[in-house]
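Technical note accompanying the year-one report. For the benefit of new consortium partners, we illustrate the data format agreed upon in the data management plan: each record pairs a sequence with a structure-token string. No post-processing was applied to the example shown here.
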Amino acid sequence: MTKSIFTLFFCCIVSFASAQMASDKRAILNVLETQRQAWNKGDVETFMEGYIKSDSLLFVGKSGPTYGWQQTLNNYKKTYQGKAGMGILTFGIKKVEFLNNDVAFVLGSWHLKRDKDEPQGYYTLLFRKINGIWKIIVDHSS
């Protein structure tokens, strides 16, 4: 009897954890989709809502590391000027892996379609669940 209760209890915990992980994965993918849609509207400020609004945000690109939400926003605005400079963004999600209950790793690809070119690359993101909301805390894009 004790063994069956333990087995049932264990199965309930595993089931709950799996459901929570699926819910968290959907939430992370929703952040990325909201970013993609905002980018494609030329709305870099809404795009930036996916990032933690903190000086601790780390963005690593071809020019090296940038610290802070505001500096990251400034760099986006300088590099991708106007709707034509931003183009149409698509993502290819390769992997979402949970490192613990409130930290996740995302690997993906990005592609911009613009009139004059089509830059593309890959990114790795670290997400942290802060007050129940998933935010990007590290972005390494190349």
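Partners are asked to follow this layout when depositing records. The mean pLDDT is 91.
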